[in-house]
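pinning this so it doesn't scroll away 📌
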Amino acid sequence: MADFLRLSAGTWLSVRSVHHFDFSPDQSGESNLIITLLEQDDEVVERVCAQQGIPASAATIGARFQWQGNHKKGPADERYGAVLVDLPGEHPGHGRLVRDVGYVEATPVISAYRFNTDGLLTIDTIYDRNTGTERCWFINEDVRVRVGTVQLMDGPNLISYATETRCTPLEELEELRRAAQQRC
């Protein structure tokens, strides 16, 4: 999981399609997904672990996930994000993720995860009234895919699909522009 999160760090253009099985408003669209790594001794990692009564020493790494409109300037709004912390399991490629805010229900939650041999990550979360499954994998280091389902007690509620493309920082683009101009 630590390697997966390190590869995920950065800003991504997320293009998402959501199909609801009821009459909920459409959530399809584009946004920026900003992923920032947090070290084991970060106070935020310690706070998230403490919410669940887990010692921070059991964690290996954390990450802050923030969503922001892709045309919005300035820092991301803290209300549109979550922090997750990796708690590796006894078996390689298995573990738990502690989140300060769940994706489906806005409460602290612990999810189980596992990696397939091909690198596909599956995260299963059981909430009070719902269950969620998300699968995520890399096409290459600059393109990720996520597929998710949310199921209520009486059947599926929504299915989502997102393609996420890494955004190159402006400093790197400027450096590439200068290098290209020097070659001309």
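📌 and the second one:
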Amino acid sequence: MGADFRLGIQSYTFRTFKTLDSLLDAVSKTGLSSVEIWPGHLPFDLPEAEIRDALARVADAGIAVDGYGAVDFTGDDAHDRAIMSFAGMAGVKTLTVVNMDDASFPYVTRLCDEYDVNIALHNHGHGLRWGTAESLREAFAKTSPRIGLCIDTAWCIDVKEKPLQWIEEFGDRLYGVHLKDFSYDSGERRDVIVGTGGLDLPAFMRKLKELEFGGYLSMEYEGDVDNPLPSAIECVNAIKGVIQAL
């Protein structure tokens, strides 16, 4: 593909595809062979035998699991350990996390050490705790490298911040990327093909290459909810084209 990236897809793109088999078929049609699984497609609290069977079906389809999320850490030990146990079964080394309060950092860090799994705080939208650069600075100043960042490029743009500056500043804690793009040309926020909205895709990918980024790289498209595949394929091709040119 060019550069040392393994491009995957966040399965939330296909959130209306209700079965694992339909998801795997859609991922294959994008031309990708890696997926960051959304819990709606494979819940972490299923019986272990069902999880292992599902993961075997993913592998049999020739698809690798690069990440899992987004999940929330609640402080409930059984709930949180179930997430970590799933990560172990799936071979996932980093979990995408949206909701976790500051007081949970020591406890979650202990779980990360115990299970050898990192977490990546996800800046998913306005009003969430980890949606701004300032909130991430606060988090990283008081935590170990077990706590890192999964940057969602579109949501970064939505809070009027710059994805390129984020990865420059937080490069040593950058564990995951959701490549997504928003446009506001209609006066409202809308999902667009990656690189055609507010994201300078070539500059962003050049910086990832410079940083020797080795985390999970997930294309995500949330538009066209009932038929996202054509636009998802366009996104994939656009990203691949940029990567090949690096």
